[in-house]
Hints:
This protein has about 350 residues and is an alpha/beta fold. The protein has helices spanning about 10-15, 45-50, 60-65, 115-125, 145-155, 165-175, 195-210, 220-225, 230-235, 245-255, 270-280, 295-300, 300-305, 310-315, 335-345, 350-355, and strands at about 75-80, 80-85, 95-100, 105-110, 155-160, 210-215, 240, 285-290, 320-325.
Amino acid sequence: MAKSRAFPTLQEIEKKLGYKVDSLDYPNKNTDCFYLDLRQVPEKFEEYERRIHRKDKRTTSERALLKLGLVHPQTAGSDENTVSLTRKTNACLYNHTVDIHLGCGFHLGLLATNQEALDTLSVAQLRQNTSGDSTPSLFRLPREIRDKIYDFALAKGNWQIEDVDDFNRCNFVRSIGDPSGFYFPLSSKVTALGVSRQMRQEALPFAYRRTLFHLDDMDDLVKLLVAVGKVGRDNIEMVELAWKSRADSEFKWDEDPNSHDSSLLLPTLHAARCIQLLKQCKRLHSLRLYLERDLITDISPDDFKAHPGIKELCSLRGIKMVRICDFGHEPVDGQSLAKWLREKMESSTEEEESGT
Length: 356
């Protein structure tokens, strides 16, 4: 009678696979963790995985993961702006953690699939070397002259997300791997950005300064300001933002679907991250906020001013022009709470401390 082959040990399996086989005991329950659309990962993560993703969608080749080194922790970026990818397990769909750290103390922890991790790392491994570019006559001019040409030649533009799912799946996940923002696909209409690496590097700041960014959701702004990298945050000047959050609404509904407290309609989940990133937009001088009109007219002033999200907004100071409208684009600056909020945001910290 033939002898049955002994079942390999865990150590032998891991050696053959080339990586550690971890348990599903992640993400860390002591820290907030989110999916790429910024929905919060539920506490019963393993149960959620089984319920939502019954059909295994993992089609990414293990060879591709091994080739890019994704079976081991990877870090992209430099200085204070880094993105770390770590493979935690091979037992579920979301088997990678993505930790985004920016110099302002900003941290965002995400879960990613094999394919999402590969997309992130594929951009992270690109290089921004401009030394191989040819030297056309434009680059023989002094840099100050070239900057004036970019400033004059680049037309004003508008930017907004046409398809949120497509942005999450393509632009956001790939741009995470490039904390500099060099490869973020700002606009195909700005032809100067596609001429050469050197021209892109020089013209990109001016393209951001000439672009009005319209965001229909706070979650989208957080993703945008992460995706555009340092060059985007350093140069964005104009933003229109709807002060609401899909992820926050879903989270609050799960917590208490029967609540009718109007203050709960004001977003909280990503408010601090949103303002933290806006504060890094040092050139930001124009901000148009869209709020639910009923929240401004019906909520008590004390509840409005004490709300954590509103407190975060009030910490964003020194904006040259703040306009507040309802979701129908009608101005509500005349409302006392809207006027109070606008004055807070337009005032500087020095004015607040001096009482002027």
